[in-house]
Amino acid sequence: MIVVELHFTGDPAARLAARPAHRELLARLHADGDLVAAGPWADDSGALLLFDADEAAVRQTLDADPYYRTPGVEVVTLRHWAPAVGDLAP
Description:
alpha+beta, 4-stranded antiparallel beta sheet, 2 helices, globular
């Protein structure tokens, strides 16, 4: 699994304008089984995305979605995650 953490900065206008198309893509990724969950932090300072895909596929997704290049959206972490307990554990 891959965890992507975003950080939001500056004026949110551009980010909020780009969000509907971004969320449509996230919904398709979820329906296809590539995205487990995604959403903003409660304080809207950033977001977390959890992918069930390999790193190359996640990087391709990030490159294809203009949201990640929107002013005020910064990818701060892309890490492999190995759940040990819970529904996602092997």
